[in-house]
Structures are given as C-alpha cells and as structure tokens.
C-alpha cells in the first residue's frame, strides 16, 4: 500500500510527532513550567524576607528570640498564606518556628552551612508524600526556601519559608495532561485518515493536497490550544524584535486586533518605547537568551493597550533552527502586580 517513498515519509513524520509529544511535555515543558513555579515562589520568599528583616533582627544585628517575633509573624503568615515559617541562628539553631516543638533543634544539613550560611538562598520543590529538606514528612506539594540574612559579608541568621503550591502543581498537571491526550487523539485520528487516503489515492497531487489540509487543521488546533492559555504569549523574531505571532490573551492585552501587535516590535507593544529595552531598569531577556541559548526569566514593567502600568514576570524560551541557531523566542508573561502591591503596602 505504501510503496511510494513520499507516502512512507508522511507516515513516519506522523508517528514521530505522536511519539515526541508526550516526551516533549514530560522532559521539556513540564520541567520548564515547574521551574517557573519554584522561581516565582523563591522570589516571593525573598521579597517577604526583606519586609520581615526588621521584625526578626535586632538593631545590633542579632536574631530575635521566638517570644519577640511571634505576634508579628502570625500576622504576616495570615496575610501572605505562608504554610510554615522558621528563623535560624548562624549555627543552625531554630530560634522560632510556627511549630513550636521544633524550637531549639539544630539544622546540621550540608546545604544550610555550605550554601545558606554563605549568603545564597536555597529553594527546593518538595513533592507530597515525601520528605522535606529537614527529613519531615510532607503531605502536600511545598516550595521550601531558605533566605540568608546578612550584615554586609557577615551571616547573622536565616529565614525558612514554606509555600503550599499543591493547587499550582495540580493545575499544571491538568493542563499538561490535556495538552498530551487531546493532541494524541487528534494525531491518531489524522493518522488513520492518512492511511485510508493514501491507500485509495495514487496521485502525488492528491497526496500533497491531503497533507496541506492536515497541516491547516493542525495549525488551527495549535492556535486553539495557545488561545486557550490565559497567559499572554507571543513569538518574537530575534533579528529585529518583531512579533511574529501571538495568542488571544496577548492580543487582547496590548491591542484590539492582531494588526495592533503582529509585525510590531516587542518593546513598542509592551513598553511603549522606540528602542530596545536596556539594563539596569529593563534588562532585555531576549538579549540574554541570545547570549546563553537558554530560557531566561526576569521582571519587567509593561503597559497595556490603555497605557496602564503593570508588573510582570517575563519568561523567554529559545527556538532554534535545524543548524542549532537561535532564530526566535517564545515570550510568556505573568502579571505579578497584585504581589508587588501587597509587598509595597505596610503591614497593618
């Protein structure tokens, strides 16, 4: 039935696409989005730690005891939905914990003394029904972040902040499950259609026409999938920073139709600027992606179609051609204005 080389190649492409979809979701997309959740939680913890510094550190740069900070910490935990909170002395002794029975215990883990005590934050996603960094059983998905407290180059203590990210992980799993099963069903459907079509048709022209129709349907489906995602997403040409395509959320955010964004530069659309974003105020993640060839995330200030200011977390993912050259990037933004506003408001 498939003696024709062209027919066999088409079937092989469909099989490879169907097989590669779950692999890409599991090994590329899922880790990337999980990393966004982890990094976002770490950034929240770092901002919160800056706000809490005066509450947990004395004027002479010593960590306060539990009795001195319990009231303030209870208020902050309630306001920011913090699952668990601890403070540590430089030696690793727990000075305060939302679980009071832990107070006085010593954290002797290597990461605390070789990473946190050296002034670097340490964050890890703990899956439910596993053990935390301190070997405690965890029954939900948790992002655990250690934030060092420094006085110049001197380590004076640390904070440990737990965020419950169970819902975020569950939502991500649901999206990726749908993104795998639905396209797999579509690929299977078109695979069967293609077998029947190629078996009945002998003309190369008919084969090409069928392939064009399948590609169009696949393109429409891909557009529907992207348009169903609520985060604004666009694809940018790295040569001239022009937007090549965008999902519905991006077009609605920055214009009234695709003509308002497609073909325009990213800095003109999102920043209302006439030139490329530059450090230190607006470091361009596209430039960083070109330099490293890796995904980059940063925080920016964007302006929507009504020129309303908002704070966003921008993630950029490289797209490379067959030779490995980076030609485009996927640009995804997440509105964090609410988080920034909550942080900037004084505690009541």
Describe the structure.
This protein has helices at residues 5-56, 66-80, 110-114, 166-200, 204-228, 248-254, 266-270, 285-292, 337-344; strands at 84-88, 94-97, 122-126, 130-131, 137-138, 142-151, 154-164, 233-237, 243-246, 296-303, 309-320, 326-335. By secondary structure, it is an alpha+beta fold. It folds into 2 domains: 33-168, PAS domain (Beta-Lactamase, 2-Layer Sandwich); 229-348, PAS domain (Beta-Lactamase, 2-Layer Sandwich), CATH 3.30.450.20. The strands form 3 sheets. It has a 5-stranded antiparallel sheet. Strands 9-8-12-11-10 form a 5-stranded antiparallel sheet, with helices on both faces. A two-stranded antiparallel sheet has the order 4-5. Helix 1 runs antiparallel to helix 4 and helix 4 (166-200) packs antiparallel against helix 5. The longest helix is centred in the first third of the chain and has 52 residues, at 5-56. The termini are far apart. The model has no long low-confidence stretch (mean pLDDT 85).
- The number of helices is 9
Order of helices and strands: HHEEHEEEEEHHEEHHHEEEH
Question: Could you tell me how far the N terminus lies from the C terminus, measured between alpha carbons in angstroms?
Answer: 76 Å
Let me know the number of strands.
12
Supply the CATH superfamily name of the largest domain. PAS domain
CATH topology of the largest domain: Beta-Lactamase
What level of helicity do the residues show?
A: 40-55%
Average pLDDT metric = 85
Largest sheet: 5 strands, antiparallel
Number of domains: 2
CATH class of the largest domain: Alpha Beta
Helix/strand-derived class? alpha+beta
Low-confidence stretches: none
Shape: elongated
CATH architecture of the largest domain: 2-Layer Sandwich
